[in-house]
Amino acid sequence: MTPQLVGIIGMLSLLVLIFIRVPVAVALAVVGTVGYAAIEGWDKALIIVGTTPFEVASGYALSVVPLFILMGQVTSKAGMSAKMFKASKSIFNGFRGSEAMATIGACAGFGAICGSSLATAATMSQVAIPEMRQCGYDDRLSAGVVAAGGTLGILVPPSIIFVIYAIVAQQSLLKLFAAGLVPAALLTAFYLVTVLVVIKVFPSWARGEETLPWRERLRHLANLWEIAFLFGLSIGGMYLGWFSPTEGAAIGAFTAIGLAMATGRLTLAGLWGCALRAVQTTAMLLFIVIGAYVFSYFTVLTQVPTALVAWVRDMGLSPLAVMATLVMIYIVLGCFLDGIGMILVTVPIFFPLVIENGFDPVWFGVMLVVVIEIGLIHPPLGMNLFVIRAQVADISLKAIYLGILPFLVAQGLLIVLLLFFPQLALWLPDHLYAH
Fold first, then answer.
1. What tens digit of pLDDT does each residue of 332-369 get?
2. What residues contact residue 312 under an 8 Å CB cut-off, 6+ apart?
3. Cis peptide before 429 (omega within 30 of 0)
4. What confidence tens digit (pLDDT) does each residue in 13-33 have?
5. What pTM was computed for the model?
6. 3-state SS string over 379-414?
7. How far apart are CA 103 and CA 130, in angstroms?
8. Interior CA angle at 228 toward 224 and 231, to 5°?
């Protein structure tokens, strides 16, 4: 049996294991180990299995992950999401559907200090949905804006997904963070327009809002100083070259803890809980990355990526057709695979194809994150949808599915724009890091 045939069998086996709900980390490690042994023998396979965990866990690049996760846990515990929602509400106050638009704005802002789509969706479900219900919003719109807004958490820096992609594809994390800013702003704007269109088509889904006095609006906006300071110090400091991404994450986590404890919104017991959840999440991610490294060694050994590049070259497809095909593959994979799993499974295989067709790897990282966002909210998996269902149990999945459909159009529009105008993602990193 040739190495390439073993590789194809291994990849199909991986998809089957994931489809039957074997944990991604286990599926990657098992297929990678057995596949490597089938080609090189068990002695060499066991050496890979024995050395990879230490190699991954001791890697400096991954040290940024637990720090950003801890910062997100602390800011959530300290109630900064509620402040973000009230401030966003003050901006859109007076418009019909202002609560829904405020949810989108708050998700974008909270994503800037959280970095996780699922955490953003879970937090804003508790903050925004009860208030929208109190104001008479239809559950379909309430759930839709939270699910869609939650996806902004992985496009707005700092983003854990960008960190994982930077490690797997060996790209600059700072360039990826910068590349995500303009698409994140565009997607936020598209979501806001979507809310207006939905309310126009279904006026009973929302009601007019009472106008708040300017003094109250300014008070809510002033409460954003903590979030602005935290983002400006940690992320802004990275762009200004004051410190590296890991140093910025450490400063961000330390500052978040200091602000939360100084204002009395975080106790030592609360800090212990945040640290414990950060460790648990980090351990889960590390297990997945370790499995992915084992699988990637197997993938390189099979030469499947090289064969794939040659096969596509022989077909004579245009670069645009190749990328459109990859986008469709990722959308299908999103039906049963989470975002981190998609990156770890597919990037080692597809990345050579992306480079061969002349696409910028930083641009591809942004495109990949946008497509992963679609996977987070489209049926039947849609992790954000199930997170909302878990937080607000009396909203039916049917209502959540119906509510999210208009926002999928907004994401599709962003994909088209990125395909035809790659500078939307590349302009800012090129401008900041032109040498």
1. 777 666 677 778 778 888 888 888 888 999 999 999 98
2. 322, 353, 356, 357
3. no
4. 887 887 777 887 888 888 888
5. 0.79
6. CCCCHHHHHHHHHCCCCCHHHHHHHHHHHHHHHHHH
7. 12
8. 140
